[in-house]
Amino acid sequence: MLLCEWKKLRMSSIWVPVIAAPVLAIGVGALMSRMDLGPMAGDMTWSFIYGEIVRVHASLFLPLLAGILASIVCRTEHLAGGWKHLLALPVSRTAVYVAKFCYVLLFLALIQVLVMIGVLVDGRWFLHLQEPIPWSVLAKGAIGGWIATIPLAALQFWASTWWKSFAAPFALNVICTIPASAVEGSNLYAPMYPWAQPMLAMLPDSSGLLYVTKETAITIAIAGIVFIVGGWIHFRTQDICA
């Protein structure tokens, strides 16, 4: 199933959002290099440029990309009775579900790595930073953001296997992403809101192993299990071939 999915995805439009993420990240640094930052120009550091990119990437693009990737992974099967043909083969629905969801997570991980490379390009090429590269900050941010996106990706994948329309899951994702910027400042609601969790997990903080507080980590674990198991049960039992 993994090989089958790869043959379908390697020539699909899934590479467009994957490539767009680091391009947008690099664009932030390129824009900052041309701006008159005034007194802030002397305080330019890796932490500053990383924080500016993360605020855009983790609060807006990463949640949207999770929904876009989930929809693209299921798009082929929603066309011309693709689910009926796929599930008529001697393969379990569980194998289909796991293979597709694995690729959603793999592409999200690739996006995280490329965005961190974008941070390095911005710092060295556009902003000419000479201080040592904070490898631990980049690694923790990339891994923490990826883990925090798993519940959101599971929820979006569930919706994508359920609804045939590409626009419906995407519209839901956009609607829920917009309040994330307002919620992320709340110590009470932000850890419980899936669309705000990637932002919390990527910004440097003294709490937790990967900048993830205990409350956020518990919520991510519970939400991830609920959405993954819920989507799997629905996929196994629902008549989605009709």
UniProtKB/TrEMBL annotation:
It comes from the Bacteria. Keywords: Membrane, Transmembrane, Transmembrane helix. The chain crosses the membrane at residues 12-33, 53-74, 95-121, 133-158, 170-196, 216-235. Coiled coil: none annotated. Pfam families: ABC2_membrane_4. This is ABC transporter permease. It comes from Alicyclobacillus fastidiosus.
